[in-house]
Amino acid sequence: MIPFYVCTVSHKKTQHSHFTAVLFSVWRLMPMLSNNLHFPDVIDNKWQILQRLNAGGFGTVYEVSEVGDEESRYAAKVQMGSEGKKVMQTEVKILSALQGKSSRICQLIACGSDNDVNYIIMNLTGQNLKDYKNSFRGKHLPPVDALKISIQCIEVIREVHEAGFIHRDVKPENFAVEFTGSADKIYLLDFGIARQYRFKNGSLRPARKRPLFYGTIEYASPNAFDEKELGRHDDLISWFYMVVEFYGGFLPWKPYKNNMKLCGQIKRKNFRSTKWLKNLPKEFTEIYETVSKMNYEEEPKYEIFIGKLKMILKRDHGINY
Fold it and tell me: What does the pLDDT average to over 280-295?
């Protein structure tokens, strides 16, 4: 039986957005800083470590097999120490709630703690979309693939929203293709900073006045830089930034992705402008004009966005999808 953890993480509010974002960034780096700590070859006497797949701000992912079943293959997400345990508890809670709500959310196989090793066992996926995209010439996807994958991404985001959660860290690294390497099925990963935006009775949680910065600088919504409460529309703004990159467009702030202050300034400057989209199909501008005007309470019109991408597929590529 998978234990169901409930975790509440409280943060002190501050008026200094840059300072809080730096603290948040350091907190996210803690799992990577702990990679040199002693780590067992077998987790909890049950999961054999085979190889490290990825390391990021919210944990390290390993390929594992179940002890006694050498042919089995799973993904183990690991964080060390008490802080890692808190993040893992949040992710387990959300993953548990999402089981059965979408076929594009990883199956939660097991979870637990082995001394300082906190782990989640999930089904194994293939490359994340950042690596998948970068494997192509020019480091962007072929146009047809870009559109099909973008549709799958917004569909799984919608399924998460319908279940009552927002992701708050939508980016290519947090999506993955199937274990076989096929992009016919896309998974959404990493719910370490996801948040329930609806109460169990279906009512909307009130927006807080000044929550901390959440997300990844490169893909975060301008609202994150202003420390506004993030909602469904912010997941879609981050999704749109991905779509632009997938299709070969340019994000004006990308050269400054490691400079939070400058990146935020450029995003704010371009938030109500569509000039940076002029070389893309007109539907990109139409999508952005809609999503950039949405607010926390508003229900996104996912089908309209999906329909516009399908329109490009049909008109420019002769494909009904």
Answer: 96
